[in-house]
Amino acid sequence: MKFIKTKLQRRSEGYQPDWVADNILVEVKTNLRAVFAVREDILRLSYAIAGQPGLRAFLLLIEPHITESRLNDEWRNVQMTFRSEILKRIKIVIFKNGAFSGITDEPPPELLDDLREICKEELSGKQTPLPRPDFKSEILKILVYQWLNRNGPLTLDSLAKTAGCNYRTLANTLEWLGNAIIRSSSRSVELKYFPEEAWEWLLVNSRKSRLTKRYSDYSGQPRSIESLFKRLDRMQLKNIAVAGIPGARHYYPDIDLIGIPRLDLAVHCPEKYLNIDFIEKLDPALKLEEDPDKPASIVLHFIRRKDSLFETNPLGIAWADPVECLLDLHEMRLEPQALEFLNFLKTGKHNS
Amino acid sequence: MSEMEDAMKSVYPRRVLSEIAGAIPEDCKKYMTIIGSLAVGYHFFVENESMAIRTKDADCLLSPRIRAVPAGKKIAEKLFDSGWLQAKSGDWGKPGNENTPPDQLPAVRLTPPGGKGWFIELLTVPESQKDRARKWISLKTSRGYFGLPSFGFLSLTDFEPLKTELGICIARPEMMALANMLEHPLISTDLMSGMIHDRTIKRSNKDLGRVLAIACLSIAKNEDIMMEWPGLWQTALKKRFPKDWRNLAQSADSGIRQLLQSESDLDEAYHTCIYGLLASQPLNMNQLKIAGQRLLQDAVEPLVKMAKMKN
């Protein structure tokens, strides 16, 4: 079914829903907080379909801040007030954390793809936009990852796809890496040696290029790393991986580190928009920390390349790749441990 | 206001519980569960005898209901004989006679010899799962007739109670939290009869504040413990309210949500906590709010989800 976004939103002479198809109207509300708005929209949709028995209507709530319990209560009130022959043609659909649910019936399966497209379109203008990815850094990190893992050469096509960049950007970066690159006749490349100079550049540049958000605990009863792990594990988020100290320890159990002062997480977001709602679900006590001098409980680093290179684990949390973990150690100013970790990675034992 | 005028007194949970355990007949202990702030205080502070809580009463729940009247009579007689006195409350404390309607009878509220600023109050569980309003049954003693009240969701508080080393049981904190949440699906305007540290407080805010205090204390003991509550809550609700458990579970969150969204109500709840169960470990209002949000995420929302699942 083809849904069309209406050009005119609200007219003084009449109501127009946000999206229309042949016999379906869709009113969309994003991040809704007040339940009275639901009431108003149900009323508008009722007016719109009342005289046309063939019409159906959906109130699509994208990432609402109202609980399903409150929406159920409101729907019960609506049921007591409105005529059933109209109400049976109106449904409330909720889109939250990438999944659909309905009040009180599940949304029709045959419309889910269309509704998902509508959500995507509606959200595209409302989420936090991210700056353009720093592909030079991403390409360098991929090449270092390949080199440390003894993975051999990558075709240019594969490298560009892994990074998510075009050939021009890739070519410029490879040229910048100069003699550190080995080119083969099959249009493949790999690092000849660990590129010390480029790595130094990456360390200096990484604070900006990686994008970081820091969160502090405001509860007075901070959750332990183990507890946060347990909760992350339950959330089963495909775009989140553990990095930092636990990540480094995952690859190198003997690393000289005691305790975990903070939890570093890698967030894979190749898209232009950022969604980090999971933080509130991980712990409502976490608040964004703007002061870089204050200690953080959780630090997010955003991986912008197309392929996350996460070490996926079907039974539990994913691990960020060793290069990201190494960068985290540097960011924490754990220089001796970062050097120890790098030297270990260079032996290739983590991959054996 | 001096403490004398305050409804709440500082008491040491272990000492109060010891005194009650030592005073009541041995064969009645199995029918008694201590509920309310004393039970919460004992549960969380039993290892630290110097930790005081502020309360005025020790609520003693008698169950099963069929045993409540004989056990209540036996307890009252033994305490009278030991010098415990009916707490004074104007004319209201005077016992009635056989003609007094049960709802006009005074509750059994007995202060220990020497008057220590607290009293025990005897209660019982509702007769059926449909009884939510306050109901009284009469209790005949040698000193006259008293009333044994039952109301709301008291039957949840004696679900799998915790046995103490003193031989009497205390209610599980999480079950008291659930009972309080169900008791207050909305913040009503009913006020507490007494003041709490210079302030008049809505009853809903006091009871829901206790839920937040239980959440704070539980987190301090075991940060993940609340994740275990939904399963226990579901079992208890199914057992106590087999016909209505799904509806009850789905309404468990509404009062707490309303409280967390209202600055003034949350402030009252905060006030009752810092002058009550959290007196020994003060926190700020935002931290109390976070404890409530964690409670919703870890325990209440999973319960609501369980109730919605069709099986």
Task: Please provide a written account of the structure.
The complex is a heterodimer of chains A (352) and B (311). In chain A, helix 5 (135-148) crosses helix 7 (167-177) and helix 10 crosses helix 12 (322-331). Chain A has a 6-stranded mixed β-sheet, with helices on both faces. A 6-stranded mixed β-sheet of chain A has the order 17-13-18-15-14-19. A 3-stranded antiparallel β-sheet of chain A has the order 10-12-11. Chain A has helices at residues 35-50, 68-81, 84-87, 112-124, 135-148, 156-163, 167-177, 196-209, 225-235, 244-251, 278-282, 322-331, 335-347, and strands spanning 4-5, 10-11, 14-15, 19-20, 24-30, 56-62, 90-96, 99-103, 128-129, 154-155, 181-183, 188-191, 212-217, 240-242, 263-268, 273-274, 286-288, 298-303, 318-319. Chain A is 40% helix and 21% strand. Chain A folds into 3 domains: 4-126, no CATH class; 135-206, Arc Repressor Mutant, subunit A (Orthogonal Bundle); 210-351, Beta Polymerase, domain 2 (2-Layer Sandwich). The model of chain B is unreliable at 1-5 (pLDDT under 50). Chain B folds into 2 domains: 3-155, Beta Polymerase, domain 2, CATH 3.30.460; 172-308, no CATH class. Chain B has helices spanning 13-23, 37-45, 65-81, 154-157, 173-183, 203-221, 229-240, 245-250, 254-261, 263-274, 285-308; strands spanning 9-11, 32-35, 53-55, 57-62, 85-86, 109-111, 119-124, 135-141, 144-150, 162-163, 169-170. Chain B is built from 11 helices and 11 strands. Chain B has a 7-stranded mixed β-sheet with strand order 5-6-7-4-2-11-10. In chain B, strands 1-3 form a two-stranded antiparallel sheet. The chains are: A alpha+beta (352), B alpha+beta (311). Chain A binds chain B through residues 67-70, 72-73, 218-221, 223-224, 227, 230, 281, 283-285, and chain B through 216, 219-220, 223-224, 250-251, 253-254, 257, 283-284, 286-287, 290-291, 293-294, 297, 301, 304, 308.
